[in-house]
Amino acid sequence: MKVKVLFEARFKIVGVMDGNSCPAEEFLLEGEDDRCRLGLIAILEFLAENGLDKASAAWLHEANKQDRIYEFIKGPLRLFFFKGADGQIAVCTSGVRKKGSKADKHAVAQAAKLRALYEAAMTDHTLEIIEDEED
């Protein structure tokens, strides 16, 4: 499994790679709601410097307690993640525009699957970290 560093200061926020692309990074950089996307980026930059324990309750929510999947929140946008290891405080999987009162079940299920793959890669020491734009 490969992850890409999205934000790095005292802590790393990484995104899971899907082939040569990073869905979380693409979500942050493309599409509508520029103000909300910029707000999500500002939240992630703050958390890379200060850690998840400094996060405002308004910034994140537990999307699925059993699978330990969370979501960053800014307006109608949700960026799904799970807590990582070795200084990787958040491993982002995908983002969606929230349309209902519940978390997107497909996005949560995909994030849970990726969390299991991430944990296996950490155990097997096969996690590859991409530090910059060059793969």
Task: Please outline the helices and strands.
Blueprint: E1 2-8, E2 12-16, H1 23-29, H2 34-50, E3 60-64, E4 69-74, E5 77-82, E6 88-97, H3 105-124, E7 128-130
Parallel strand pairs: 1-7, 2-6
Antiparallel strand pairs: 1-2, 3-4, 4-5, 5-6
Name the descriptors.
135 residues; globular; 7-stranded mixed beta sheet; alpha/beta; 3 helices
Short structural description:
By secondary structure, the protein is of the alpha/beta class. It has helices at 23-29, 34-50, 105-124, and strands at 2-8, 12-16, 60-64, 69-74, 77-82, 88-97, 128-130.
Describe the structure.
With 135 residues, the protein is of the alpha/beta class. It has one domain (2-130). The chain is 33% helix and 31% strand. The protein contains 3 helices and 7 strands; from the N terminus they run ββααββββαβ. It has helices at residues 23-29, 34-50, 105-124; strands at 2-8, 12-16, 60-64, 69-74, 77-82, 88-97, 128-130. A hairpin with a 4-residue loop joins β3 and β4. It is globular, with a radius of gyration of 14 Å. The model has no long low-confidence stretch (mean pLDDT 91).
Q: How many distinct beta strands? A: 7
Q: Which outline best applies?
A: globular
Measured distance between first and last alpha carbons: 13 Å
> Structural class per helix/strand content?
alpha/beta
The helix fraction, in percent, is 25-40%
SSE order: EEHHEEEEHE
The tally of domains stands at: 1
Q: Mean of residue pLDDT? A: 91
Unreliable spans: none
Largest β sheet strand count, sense and barrel closure: 7 strands, mixed
